[in-house]
Design goal:
alpha+beta; ten-stranded mixed β-sheet; five-stranded antiparallel β-sheet; 25% helix
Length: 398
């Protein structure tokens, strides 16, 4: 679905004003003048295809066509919400991020401030994930076209982004490549921004950034896709920074893989149920997988490679939590539908996943139930350490 160049008049000032007001409300602060200026200059609707998808009330997606619903399409373009621009195999595979999320990441990178830093005028910027090209256009407006490189894995999406950029007068360097190991031209880059979430910092990213440079990326784990990490690069391949409590982005794609998929469950694969061990627990499954993002963030970090899925169909129990990893370990936690404070646990495989989860939850409570903003991360060569409050309080390493 190619977005054709358009000769539209500039976006309606009322729509732009409304969007900027919504962004400032989400940020809970006035937009810095420099950032507000580029958000006014770069019109979001010029980077959207004629069919987009919005979330509906049931949690699915509803198409909005420019040809048949122009007013609704334009209103969506200038709403502070994510818009899906492509589906692959029935799943969202490309989207236009919420403008407030874009603004938050630019602020974390140092754009819009008055003090010198890695994102000062003249900075070189590397973006992983071109998407529609909108964010690359904002970067061009901030630092100049020749100082921006954007890398996209999907050659079709890269071509569409380049077309959108050209149609709106921006000419950054657009590269087709894999963010996990691509070394694009134009480096070193003072700022590296990712438009998808990662569960580790690829080693090649650190080679792209000089000492004092900045890496900003959404974060994810198999358990929880949430949070944004802002790192400052130091000498000898070391980087350190903190997590911030916003963002839920699509995960980084690799060639030949889906961008997003359902959580694994023991019903589909895993260790033989005949080898399972039964026990009980007083830890409610809702305490670790019920939507408390601070808890789920900690579980995702400290019980690696483990995902969950809820089953309320009643085939096995009134409510069942499925837990599984990628190495044939699984667990289920059943609730009998009554008010019982005890839950039935079944575990199988090399790992006792529910025991690991219970230990991680207990540690989180001992730490004072920290929110995501108290967590930080240090990368030193091949080792990544996650800590709470200070690097002296490490909670996990990988």
């Amino acid at each position: 679905m190619v977005t054709t160049p358009r000769g539209d008049a500039p976006a309606d000032d009322v729509l732009v004003d409304g969007l900027l007001t919504a962004v400032a409300e989400q940020l809970d602060q006035p937009l810095p003048a420099g950032l507000e200026q580029v958000l006014r200059r770069v019109h979001r609707h010029r980077f959207l295809p004629d069919r987009i998808w919005q979330r509906d009330v049931s949690g699915g997606y509803e198409p909005v066509d420019r040809a048949t619903e122009p007013d609704r399409w334009t209103a969506a373009a200038y709403s502070d919400e994510p818009l899906v621009t492509r589906f692959t195999d029935g799943l969202p595979s490309s989207s236009a991020s919420m403008p407030s999320m874009v603004a938050r990441m630019l602020l974390l990178a140092g754009f819009g401030g008055s003090s010198p830093g890695p994102a000062a005028p003249g900075a070189r910027v590397l973006e992983w994930g071109a998407g529609t090209g909108y964010n690359a256009a904002l970067l061009c407006a901030l630092v100049g076209d020749r100082r921006v490189t954007t890398v996209e894995l999907d050659p079709v999406i890269a071509a569409e982004a380049q077309e959108n950029l050209k149609a709106t007068g921006y000419t950054p360097t657009v590269v087709v490549g894999d963010a996990a190991d691509c070394r694009p031209p134009g480096g070193p880059h003072d700022v590296v921004l990712a438009t998808f979430s990662v569960d580790h910092i690829p080693p090649t990213w650190l080679t792209q950034v000089p000492s004092g440079g900045r890496i900003v990326t959404p974060w994810s784990s198999a358990w929880c896709t949430y949070g944004t990490l802002a790192l400052t690069s130091h000498q000898h391949g070391r980087a350190e920074g903190r997590f911030h409590s916003f963002a839920s982005f699509m995960q980084m794609a690799r060639p030949g893989t889906d961008r997003c998929g359902p959580a694994p469950g023991p019903a589909a694969r895993g260790a033989d149920a005949r080898q399972a061990v039964r026990s009980s627990t007083t830890l409610s499954p809702w305490a670790v997988a019920g939507g408390d993002l601070d808890t789920e963030f900690h579980i995702g970090l400290t019980v690696p490679g483990t995902a969950f899925a809820w089953d309320t169909g009643g085939e096995h129990a009134p409510t069942r939590l499925h837990v599984a990893d990628t190495a044939d370990s699984w667990a289920t936690v059943d609730h009998d539908g009554l008010t019982s404070a005890a839950f039935t646990v079944t575990q199988a495989g090399p790992r006792r996943l529910w025991d690991e989860i219970a230990t991680a939850h207990r540690h989180w409570e001992q730490l004072g139930r920290p929110g995501i903003d108290r967590y930080g991360l240090t990368v030193t060569g091949p080792t990544t350490t996650v800590w709470v409050d200070t690097p002296a309080t490490a909670v996990t390493a990988f």
